[in-house]
Amino acid sequence: MPYKKQSANEDEQFRLAAKAIIVLRSEKLSSIAKALQLDPGGLSGWLGGTPNRLSLEKKEILSNYLGLEYTHIKPGIVHFWNTNIEDLSELAPVVINKDLLKKIIITPILADTITIGCVYHSKVGDVTLVILCRPQNKAFQIPILSPEITGWGNLSQPVEIKKCMFESWWKEKNISPEYIWTQIHDGIK
User: Which string of b and e fits 69-106 if b means at least 16 CB within 10 Å?
Assistant: First the structure.
């Protein structure tokens, strides 16, 4: 999708969404700049609020890299977030459409009865959204948010999936949302 010129307000909304995704992914600006061949100072300056530090072309490259369509996450890809419960509860509403947040299904993933992460997924029409979450490290809580706390989504029963399968979803970055959706629902049966 070509990236169109934005008003100052739209640019600020995109900046907030980009910052939220970077935090949820636990990614460093230097690694993003290197991967996208962007000037680290320009990227940092734009994220810090200085206008005109990134061209429209560079914003489009950044948007695609982060899995964003302007200010919301793209539904046709799997989103991989290394996060904690506090960041997830604060930042997910910034990048997920409010209507979709209410329809999302939260599935805790168990391996040998130990919770290893969570899948947030939703199927609306022919669009499947899948977000894979795991804690940043063992010191953080597993990022499973209860709908009673947040007011969004439905909590499904935990699904027992082999840890190696969950880890393979993280390694295979070209995996489709439909593939994970199907494996989760096969695990429920």
Answer: eebbbbbebbbbbbbbbebbbebbebbbbeebbeebbb
H or E stretch at 92:
helix 85-95
Helix (H/G/I), strand (E/B), else coil: 178 = helix
Query: What's the sign of the alpha-carbon dihedral 89, 94, 99, 100?
Result: negative
Rounded distance between C-alpha atoms, residue 135 and residue 148, angstroms: 21
Q: What is the number of residues in the chain?
A: 189
- Helix, strand, coil share of the chain (percent; to 5): 45, 20, 35
Q: What is the pLDDT of residues 109-147, one digit of tens each?
A: 988 778 888 999 998 778 889 999 988 887 777 778 888
Cα distance between residue 81 and residue 26, in whole Å: 7
**CATH 1.10.1060 correct for 8-69:** no
The 8-class DSSP code of residue 54 comes to: S
Quick one: CA dihedral 13, 14, 17, 18, positive or negative? negative
